[in-house]
Structure formats: structure tokens, C-alpha cells
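Here we describe the complex-level prediction in full. Unlike the single-chain runs in Section 2.1, the two entities below were treated as one system.
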Amino acid sequence: MSQKIIVDPITRIEGHLRVEVVVDENNVVKEAYSGSTLWRGIEVIVKGRDPRDAGFLTQRICGVCTFSHYKAGIVAVENALGITPPLNALLTRTLMNSALFLHDHIVHFYQLHALDWVDIVSALSADVKKASDLAFTFTPNPYATGADKLLEVQKRVKTFVDKGNLGPFANAYYGHPTYRLSPEENLIALSHYLECLRVQRIIAQCMAIFGAKNPHPQSLTVGGVTCIMDLLSPARMGEYLEKFKEVADFVNRAYYPDLIMAGKKYATEASVVNDVGVPNLFTFKEFQLGANEWLFESGIIKNGDLSKVYEVEEDKITEEATHSWYKNDAPLHPYDGETEPNYTGLVDGESIDHHGKVVKTKNFNTAGKYSWIKAPRYDGEAMQVGPLANIAVNYVKGNKYVVPVVDEFLKVTGLPITAVLSTLGRTATRCIEAKVIADNALTAFNNLVENLKTDQSTCAPYVIDPNKEYKGRYMGHVPRGTLSHWCRIKNGVIENWQAVVPSTWNASPKDSKGKGGSYEECLIGLKIADVKQPLEIIRKIHSYDPCIACAVHVMDTKGNNLSEYKVSVNV
Amino acid sequence: MTFKELEARLKELESLPSMKGNSSIPKALEEAGFSRRDFMKWAGAMTAFLALPASFTPMVARAAELTDRVPVIWLHMAECTGCSESLLRSDTPTIDSLIFDYISLEYHETVMAASGWQAEENLESAIEKYKGNYFLMVEGGIPVGETENYLTIGAHAKTGRQIATEACNNAKAILAIGTCSSFGGIQAAHPNPSNAKPLHKITNKEVINVPGCPPSEKNIVGNVLQFLLFGKPALDVYNRPKWAYGLRIHDLCERRGHFDAGEFVEHFGDEGAKNGYCLYKVGCKGPYTFNNCSRERFNQHTSWPIQAGHGCIGCSEPNFWDTMQPFEKPLASHQFNSVFGGLGSDAMADKIGIGVLCLTGVAIAAHAAIATMKKGNEE
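The structure predicted for the assembly as a whole is:
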């Protein structure tokens, strides 16, 4: 007797995502479907506009990945026009990018993901002195875990819980059988949850120092950056340096030890190990540290085989829409992609609600189209992207920045390298990536200071010839994985635009061969402890740090008549 | 707004049942190790920020003490979560973490613990429990008409429009946070393929618009406080609170002196850029944009676009994606309806403003420069 479980909305992510699974009589997942339920159509809107504006429009794809699509939109146009920005501009972009990654990763772990691992109610019964001593077993120099501090955290949360109005913490899965941390460990994590709210503001300021504001910075321009006054101000440079160090300290003394703590306890939790999802890993080089130096390199791993890395061949990327709400079904390269919305809706069905009752619901039409997310494929295969792919590929390649951090983590937790191919591994590698950035990004800062002594150029000159046709792309690594933007420019305006986004790879629906993306694949075989509280599903999905506004995008058909969109009269 | 009216408003708030026993922000601050003095300092800063005389400080403090009686529901429509992210940047002395603890955030998809059925239940029970007493804050545009189901939420696939309308019907006050819910935003830019609309188009209740892409953390939190103090703030023609959107970026711009002196950045990265010259010629929309960025800046006053050497793009104005582009060219060489066609900002104020500008020889020189550029474009 199989049953359907729907989780909609998946909260603590960016955007609107629904997951549906079918479980058998033992509550083991037999089928899984993930789909987005919002479409905005940014690429349609970019069409016909000034190429210099494209970055500002694509930036609004997402306010969490706020720098990623801005930079991608600017770089794609630079690539099309054949512009190489000055080194100062490239390194400044690296500094802003470092701020984005650290912000994204700490906020993801604490504000978005922690409640999947940490039971805050359990923290209330912790012994603060024991917890304070325990913190020293994960790091020689713990962060905000003194007995006095922990007592204050406990008191504050206790007061809150006692009042019986939990606000944003209401109706969660407290006491769930898959929670593994002791009350003391939960309390340590809870203290860091609250600290993170303060620290994330500081790293956002790091972006604002060169970027004007965060979210949605505004200092990149086609050809370079505009923040020359900030670069020439020692006070501003010092501000970045000090604030960055403060956040790097939090990464090393709070985030990383918490991962070791969780890694040790969850290594034997069946619902988060041995579930790599899609075993093909894809990452792309990012973080220019100097004239010819990068922090992370590109590569592809096939079928989870950690003995070999393949080079990336860009022309093997395609997207198709067999199960997506668009008209075309054929796989096409992003330069030639074609898309037109074709919303066929949800269908009447049943599922189990939170009381365990079977109720009437609107379900995905899983035989037909069921998502606004398309299915990107590489050489016909689904790919997994993200920190897991980035760290695994760079480890196998012997990257000098990555190998020591991974080796240390494996030694301390006693886990084998193959353990990274799991939900726990996805969460751990995100932290490892943050640590590698926290420990090395200032190389770019030092090189920038060195370069500014002899060179103050920040923008490369260029012309856009209205009589020429251009095409170009950005490809790189952003907090959630491999991102590429592909553009064509004609008559001096954007002719078409296509973004192939990390969450599109991971949240992909099934393709014409019936193969799903990594969200769907990693759910197959999962045993759910309590169908009324599907925490295991949410934990797995959160480990990808979904960004659904990013994942949903569409490019207009070349020459498509936009007036074909039926727009009803104003209400 | 007089003292008397304010007193009456605070009394009204005080008469509301408190949601959580005797908790309040000052109490919470005390528990977190902040003194009453710190709290009053914050209230003083907030008073100045709201452009009120210092004598109002105790009132602000009292208003803050009453915030725990206001449950907040925050909805996500067609959006990018940038406004929620901006709210997270709020800094007023550790009050941001307290907002999570002490303003009762009943529903907010980005931070709430519950998912799926449990999340839906939280929303329904909050609307029921606090009928007529909760603050509704909405982020994002709303697809309507034939494309209404381009946004659905929950196992019953309710559309964004249905959810927002229902939440509006029972709210005490409605704030549209960000340009998308205020004016439609990016998804409503030409050709608006999902037929996205601003919040005020789908409800007949009054909506206070807090535009910006995203609005600064100060404008989001400040407007909640403003509301608590005044019941309803003074609004401009686009329903924007005047205290925040009453002046143009240009009026208080740190580079205004260079505009008056005719010193312009001609190209990004040139000598003028190093010296902080005016960005008008590289497309700054400051003269047509009503907001307080030049005074408040972003991320705890860290910076703002013009300080970072890029012009304003007019992000708090209606339809700015269509009326203000190209962003890196002056409006004079505009291919679309400009603000003077009644779009973008208050045409009347603008005409007067521009009229004043024209009195300076410099401005005439600037216009001459624009005319030359325009000619260049036509060639």
C-alpha cells in the first residue's frame, strides 16, 4: 500500500519549492519529485535591453545569491565584447565574492539548515558547565561557549518557550527520532545560531565596502568596477581587512567545530549517509587570487569514482523541458535554447497530511509536466553541483588549498573520503569550502594592495558596435555550485539570454529518459520515521541550500513574438 | 502629528492585550545585558532617524516597548528574497536578534522552522488568532489573470493572489516591502510575462509602500516603528512614507557640490571618478529618485551606490526598470517615457526642482553637455 507525502512550502530556502514522494508500506521512498511553483521570466525581460544593464536585471534573479548573477551578467557581456577588465577590478570582485560565500554559507548552516540537525528544545535541559567543557573537545579555542554565555542563551530561549508563543519556531519537529545531538551539543549550536545573526551583518558590510550595499551591490560595470575611491582609501581597505578577519574567526572557531561535532554524531544516522543523489559531480574554477592564480579549479567526476577527474567541455551542456512547463522538449545548448511557457497545472489527487489522514490535494502530474525548472544535462547525464562537487573535484586534483583541510576533517571525525558523497558530506563540504575561503581570500587582498601601488586602473574601455553580432558567457562557481550565463548581442541590444543555475542542475525534474536531478535521486530509498513529520526529506533538500528563484528561468525563443503572451486586463 | 495624537495612539496600543505575559523589548534587552540607558540611546537614534524632534524620544521608547503586542505575518510572492535579506541586516543595538524573539514573527518562510502542512497551519492559525490585529508585510509581485497560477503555495496549490488577498482582509496594517510588492518590480518590467501586479492592485485596503530594491534595513524597521508611533504615516502620491521618501537622492547627495560646480565623471574609472565627481553623465538617476539613501546609506551606514562610484538606478520609483534605463546613460538620451511624462516620480516636484537647477549656469552647462551627447547618439 503506497502513500503520497507532499511537502509544500519547503521553508528556510530561497523561493517556492514543492517535494512529493511516494512511500511503500514500510515508509521507504520509492518515487520522488521536486518542482518549483513560481515563474517570473527574467530572461524574457532582459531581451531587447542595453547590454550594460543586463547585470542589474540578472542580479534580481536572486537576493540571496545577490552578487553571483550580477557578476555573471556583467562578465558574460565582457566575454562577448572581448573585454579583459584590469587586475584591480578582478581582485575587487574576488573580495566581494569572498564576502558573499562566507555570508551565504554561515547563514545557510545556522539560520536555514541548523534546525534540521539541532533540537533547540533539547538545549533547554543542557548542563551549561558540561556544555562549556565539551566545546573544548571540538576546538582548542571555542567561540561564545563559556558557561556564562550559555546560561544566558538558555535563559533567553527558555523565557521564550515558556510563554508558549514560539513565533517562527512554532510547529517544528522537536523531539524527532533522527535528532542525534546531546542537549549540551544542541546548546552550543544554539549559541552560535544567535551569534551568527550578528556576524552575518559584518560580512555583509564587507561586501558593501566595495559594493555600496548588500543585498544587491551596485559597483560592477561592464569593463571593471566603479569603487575606485574606496580602493584608494587606506581606511576603507582596513575596514574590509578587520571585518573579514572577524568573520573568518567565527568560521574557524564556531562553524567548523560545530561541523565536527555534528559529523561525529550523525555519521551513523542512516537518513544522512550513503545518499549521494546524482553521483556525477561538476565544478568550475573561481576566486582569482592574483594575475594567474585561482583558489578553486574546474573538473568533472563521473559515477562517484574519486580516482579520476575529467576536463569540462562546455559544448556538452544542454537543457530540455520534457517535464517542465515549457513548450520545447528537445535538449538544446544554452546559446540556442528556446522556451515558451506552457503551464499545464497540477492535478486532483490525495496525500497524507500532518495528522496522518489521507486528504484531497493538488498533486504534480508526474507523467507530464510538473515544474518551472528545466532539466540541464552534461553529455546527456544529470550532474550534481555545489560545495560537495567543488571540494571533491579539488581534493582529487590535489589542490594545495583544499587537501589539508579535508584530510584534517577526515582525521578528526574518523570518516573515509567516500563519506563526503552524502547529505552529511554536502553539509560538511560547504563548511570546508567556507574555511578554505576564510583562510585564503586575503591573498587576493594583499595582491590588490601590491598592485594598487603601481596601477590604479579599474575599468577597461570598450565599444559596442551595433552592426556586429556578439555572443559570450560566464562560467564559474558560486555558493550553490556551477553557474553559467550565456548571451547574444545584436543591433547593440540583448538578443537572448540564458542562465544555467546551480539549483537548476540539482533540482532538475526528470528528463526524457526518466532520470531525475540530485534532489529527487537522493530521496529514493529513504526510510521516513514518521510520515506526519517528514524531517528527513527537509534535511536532505536543505543540504543543497536550494535557491529556487535562481533555478527557475527561461530564455525567449529567438525571434519569438512577445505579444504572444496573453496578458489579461489590469485588475 | 501632535503630542496629543501620539499620546492617544500609545494609549490605544497599551490597551491591546499583550501577547507574551510581561515581555517587552526593554526587558529583553535587560536580559541580554543591555542597560536602560542603551535602550534609550537607541530610541534617541530612532527618533532622529524618523526626523522627529528629540522631545519625542520617550515616545519612541514607549512605542518600542509595545511592539511585542504586534504579531507580524510576512508573505513571499514573486520575489528574490532580497527584502528578507535586507531585514536580516538590521543592526539597531542587537535588536535584530530580538526581533526574532520579541516581535512575534508568526509566519516568514525564509526563517521559520516549520515546513509543508505545519507551515500552512501556522499561517492559518495566526490569521485566525490575531484577526484584525496583525501587521502584514508582503515581499514580491503577484501574478494575476490568466497567469495567476504561475505562483502556487501549499498542498492545495492556493495561488499567491488568494493567499495575499486573504491575509490583507484580516490585517491591521499592510506594508508592501520592496519595489516588487509596491509597484510590481522586476517581473512586471516589459513585457511582464507573468502579469505581475503590485499588492495595492489586488486588495482594496490601504497599502503602505516601502519601495527599494531592496529597501535599506533602516527603512524596513523604521517603517514598522513609524507605524506604531503614528498609526498611519504621512504618505506621498505613491503611498510612500514621507519621512523616508520625501526628498530626492540628489537633494542630499555627497557629490552635489561637484554637480553645482560642473565637475562630472565622464567615464567610470577616470580622474573624475577618483576625485568623487558627480555621476550624472554616467547615468545617475538621483535627480529623479525619492529616497533617503544619501542620508542613511546601507548596512549600518557603510556605503551606498553613489559612494561606491556608481550612479543611482532609481530603484524606489514605480516602473524604474523601464523608465530609468539605460542605467549608465543620462535620462536626457532616453528612449522611453521619462519621469516628465508623469512616470517615475512626482512630476510636479520634479519640474520645480529642475526649474531651480536651471537657475545655475552650471546646470545649463550640463544640459549643453547632454545635448552634445544626445547628438552623438543620433549620429
